[in-house]
Amino acid sequence: MIDGSILIGRATRRSKESFHAYDPATGAVVGPAFGIASAADVADACALAADAAGPFGSLTPAVRADFLDAVAAAITDIGDVLIETAMAETGLPRARLEGERGRTTGQLQLFAAVVRQGDWLDATLDSALPDRVPPRPALRRMNLSLGPVAVFGASNFPLAFSVAGGDTASAFAAGCPVVVKGHSAHPGTGELVARAVQKAVADCGLPEGVFSYLPGKSHALGSALVADPRIKAVGFTGSRGGGLHLVEIARKRKEPIPVYAEMSSVNPVIILPGALADRGIELAGAFSSSLTLGAGQFCTNPGTIVAVDGPALDAFVGAAAAALADVEPATMLSAGIASAYADGVAALDRNAAVERASAERGAGHNRCVPALFETTAEAYARDASIGDEVFGSAAIVVRCRDIAEVAAVVAGMEGQLTATIHMDQRDMEMARPLVPLLSDKAGRLLVNSWPTGVEVTHAMVHGGPFPATSDSRSTSVGSLAIARFLRPMCFQNLPEDMLPPALQDSNPWHLSRRIDGELRAPAATLANA
User: Fold this and answer.
1) Distance of alpha carbon 349 from alpha carbon 483, whole angstroms
2) Distance between CA atoms of 469 and 166, rounded to whole angstroms?
3) Spatial distance between the Cα atoms of 177 and 209, rounded to a whole number of angstroms
4) Rounded to whole angstroms, how far apart are CA atoms 118 and 502?
């Protein structure tokens, strides 16, 4: 089932150039040699995607929804070999990967339900007013598919943010063909899922260009994909450097395109005095669990704690350090990620304005030893590097003199995916002015919980101001993610039989539509509105 092929539409190709996957725990080679897609493969995949864009984008909601369900079923049908392959390539435990498979298929099914409902089309009809001075023409508006989308597989979610993850699912839901650049750390996992998607495309009788899969290691492959003029948008989850590189390529194209890049976040947690005094020890244990989940390789792990200095904060730091000392060093996803983590921790150790709160200890091959540091609000404001993300189980406590300094630290922060307030009833008035400050900095604000993990729901926002993402108006998780790959189109005075079905008077797709400013149920037509 895994032979290292490149998948271009319905075809499989071999490559003279190849690379291997490695077990991150041992460094041993896993699986066969995997082909490296060439510039010619990129061009062929993008050409097929462009050919498929029109037919795929004009499918009825029911047919496109059936395709999303078929992809979910095909992934489930892979069976245990998918989990075992992902375990070997990532070092992640079975339970985590089984849960992630469920999330992957679940979000495909969520988007299928969204597509069937039809609200994403935002069908809007304004009737003509010929007797008005001046007369108003008949105007009809709906959302159209943007066109072929390039999706980059993520290292930390080999299923939910990779080949058939949230970016791919939402692009398919919008009616956009997808060309995936597979992540080189888990190519066997990627190929299994890619073959499942390829099968679903064929089983549903869709144009072959709806999906292609390009494995490879080089930055040149991803750059060529984003630069191809037939690509109309990009979905990316990864490092800030990688995301900004793609943004720059997209910006310099003859036709610039949007890059929806989720890049970096330290997910600040504000612990207010009442909560710190009443339950600081309990919070320390929960913080340790949240920080170290998945070796800290979630984009929402809490990397910064901000609180008012004093004995209660001392007790919190001591309890957190003790809890982290009991956490076994966990295998990280790749040698590159482990090396970057070690470098980030070493940089904080060298910083004279930072003190280590947790004990130093040795680690095995590619393993993450949790690390906790402390600094002052003054030092944090003076040295921006202290606030840099260290991807893994590392965090820093920022000690503030008073609540005004807590607010100043928040005001000076970069954009984040999440922000959290821990508070008790007596902290309410203190928390109130922090809410707009934190809302300005993050895409999701939590109270008395921990940010690690993201629910796939209609209300979820997994995004935030730069540099958490390259576009703060978007989310990569939840049903709103479909909006990234749509554009509004207005038709003026177009004859009825030339209008898209969503805008025809007879409403053949049975959509809820806004007619002359009022939201109408599917049974309403322009004539009887």
Assistant:
1) 43
2) 15
3) 7
4) 9
Residues 6+ apart with CB under 8 A from 225: 42, 46, 150, 179, 181, 214, 231
| 399: three-class secondary structure by DSSP | strand
Strands lying side by side in the sheet with 268-271: 355-356, 371-376, 394-400, 304-308, 268-271, 416-422, 442-447
Contacts of 457 (CB under 8 A, 6+ apart): 478, 479
The pLDDT of 446-456, averaged and rounded, is 95
Is pTM beyond 0.70? Reply is: yes
Q: Which residues make beta-bridge pairs with 277? A: none
- Cis geometry, peptide bond prior to residue 134 (ω within 30 degrees of 0): yes
Alpha helices in 412-498 (DSSP H): 428-431, 434-439
Per-residue model confidence (pLDDT) at position 364? 79
Please give the pLDDT value at position 524: 54
User: CA–CA separation, 299 vs 391, rounded Å?
Assistant: 8
Q: Would you please indicate which residues are annotated as catalytic (active-site) residues?
A: 262, 299
Helix, strand, coil proportions of the chain in percent (round to 5)? 45, 20, 35
**pLDDT at residue 527 greater than cutoff 90:** no
| 354 φ, ψ (degrees, to nearest 5) | -120, 140
Strand spans (E) along 93-191: 124-126, 139-145, 149-152, 178-181
Phi, psi of 128 (to 5 degrees): -70, 145
Beta-strand relationship, 268-271 and 259-262: unpaired
Q: Locate tokens 């149920």: which residue?
A: 521
**CA 218, 224, 227, 230 torsion: positive or negative?**
negative
Q: Angle at Cα 14 formed by Cα 8 and Cα 17, nearest 5°?
A: 115
Phi and psi for 87 in degrees, rounded to 5? -60, -45
**pLDDT value of position 358:** 95
